[in-house]
Amino acid sequence: MEKLSYQHHGSEEVLGFDLSVAPNELVAILGPSGVGKSTLLSLIAGFENPVSGSIKFNGKELNRLSPSERPITSLFQEHNLFAHLSAEENIGLGIHPGLRLTSQDKEQITQALDDVGLKGLGKRHPAELSGGQRQRVALARCLVRRRPILLLDEPFSALDQDLRKEMLRLVKNLHHNHGLLTLMVTHLKEDADAIADRVVHLT
């Protein structure tokens, strides 16, 4: 991101961002509420448009690409699982929105469930899973999309401390095992210190 600026509709305040992230780096973005952490991720993902500046990945300009065209997958505090679908079907949506899945796709889903510690639970529906397990399903859905950039917008903030630490360890392992570039927004310094190669402070 180079000289990126953003202005909320109806606001005179202009937010500015300038950040370079190395391949396979895990960066935590730390700061108080309202400072623009989530806005930054929305700009990178393409959900918001900057006033000026550029977003590049591997030398390619991303600004003109729609969210679905960008090499990015995101995980938020709300897991956005469909209650009427099983865990494996919810994960399958990351591969094909119509769930028209090949045998290879199904093998990939099984592997993703194993990677996030949910082996054997693919047939369960969200109501049959704990809060932490539902976030694991959402994380597995991110993995099967096979995008090189993972954005995390405080996805574990609603979990208790022990479970949050467990999920952070899982993310760190998956980040390294899958060779991802990961940006995680948090307002908790202990979470940033526990997971990140580098911490960026927004003020």
From TrEMBL:
<protein>
    <submittedName>
        <fullName>Thiamine ABC transporter ATP-binding protein</fullName>
    </submittedName>
</protein>
<keyword id="KW-1278">Translocase</keyword>
<dbReference type="GO" id="GO:0005524">
    <property type="term" value="F:ATP binding"/>
</dbReference>
<keyword id="KW-0997">Cell inner membrane</keyword>
<keyword id="KW-1003">Cell membrane</keyword>
<keyword id="KW-0067">ATP-binding</keyword>
<keyword id="KW-0547">Nucleotide-binding</keyword>
<dbReference type="GO" id="GO:0016887">
    <property type="term" value="F:ATP hydrolysis activity"/>
</dbReference>
<feature type="domain" description="ABC transporter">
    <location>
        <begin position="1"/>
        <end position="203"/>
    </location>
</feature>
<dbReference type="InterPro" id="IPR003593">
    <property type="entry name" value="AAA+_ATPase"/>
</dbReference>
<dbReference type="InterPro" id="IPR027417">
    <property type="entry name" value="P-loop_NTPase"/>
</dbReference>
<dbReference type="GO" id="GO:0071934">
    <property type="term" value="P:thiamine transmembrane transport"/>
</dbReference>
<keyword id="KW-0472">Membrane</keyword>
<dbReference type="InterPro" id="IPR017871">
    <property type="entry name" value="ABC_transporter-like_CS"/>
</dbReference>
<keyword id="KW-0813">Transport</keyword>
<dbReference type="GO" id="GO:0016020">
    <property type="term" value="C:membrane"/>
</dbReference>
<dbReference type="GO" id="GO:0042626">
    <property type="term" value="F:ATPase-coupled transmembrane transporter activity"/>
</dbReference>
<dbReference type="InterPro" id="IPR050093">
    <property type="entry name" value="ABC_SmlMolc_Importer"/>
</dbReference>
<dbReference type="InterPro" id="IPR005968">
    <property type="entry name" value="Thiamine_ABC_ThiQ"/>
</dbReference>
<dbReference type="Pfam" id="PF00005">
    <property type="entry name" value="ABC_tran"/>
</dbReference>
<dbReference type="InterPro" id="IPR003439">
    <property type="entry name" value="ABC_transporter-like_ATP-bd"/>
</dbReference>
